[in-house]
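Can't attach files on this board, so I'm pasting raw text. These are the components:
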Amino acid sequence: MSTSPVLVIRHGAVAYDRPVLRDVNLTVTSGEVVAVLGANGSGKSTMIRAALGLVPLAEGEVELFGTPLRRFRERRRIGYVPQRLGAGGGVPATVGEVVGSGRLARRGFPGRRTAEDRQAVAGALAAVGLTDRANDPVASLSGGQQQRTLIARALAGQPDLLVLDEPTAGVDAASQEAFADALRDFVARGGTVLLVAHELGPLQPVITRAVVVHDGVIAHDGPVPHPSGHHAEPGHDHVHPHAPQDPPSIWGRE
Ligand SMILES: Nc1ncnc2c1ncn2[C@@H]1O[C@H](COP(=O)(O)OP(=O)(O)OP(=O)(O)O)[C@@H](O)[C@H]1O
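---
Top answer:
Structure tokens for the assembled complex are below.
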């Protein structure tokens, strides 16, 4: 199996109105499932968006599949599911249509739908457990199901790298298990995954490496750190404001 770098960030820095990321160095290799963890506002989303060229780097460089970002043209090799994007949004599309749109980059112009397209869409719907909802309007689905629709759209494109920003936020436990299985299957077929998460939950066994972002720098890169104290309690959702005496945590929301 090839272990070539899929994504490299070297000395990456991003600033909006103020610096948000500094000297980020990250290499994701083929077959890895890397979780980006860290507190609210630490820079996790910014890091993956910069890696995809959605946010400009103030310093440093990015390579995707061995090609510098500015010369990278094989967008279809990447499936990206952004954070909290309501797939419904008043668009009267069905689940099947939204997932089918994930095939567009793969089609030539004028782009007829092929048997392969149909198969990929069916496989992606099955992977996220939404086969029986294919003909329903996306707007009629729950938030978690809409999130799964977007994951299926990314899977339908049969990317080599799947980048997901909080894919399981607001998704129930059974769906998280189904998503973990879908990821396993994706990696078994040669895929690589980079995902942002607050809680790993059922995803934990699938994760091969964790990167913790703290205050705009990578504070840990290695095995998944174990949550400690009350952060480890089931159901702890990390959204409460911490009392000043709380120990600092690199795990949850502060
Ligand atoms: N487009 C933007 N313009 C200005 N500031 C931004 C922008 N996007 C993010 N920020 C700021 O950059 C910092 C990092 O944000 P980012 O979304 O990367 O954090 P995060 O770790 O993903 O947080 P969360 O867990 O809440 O999603 C935050 O202070 C945020 O307010």
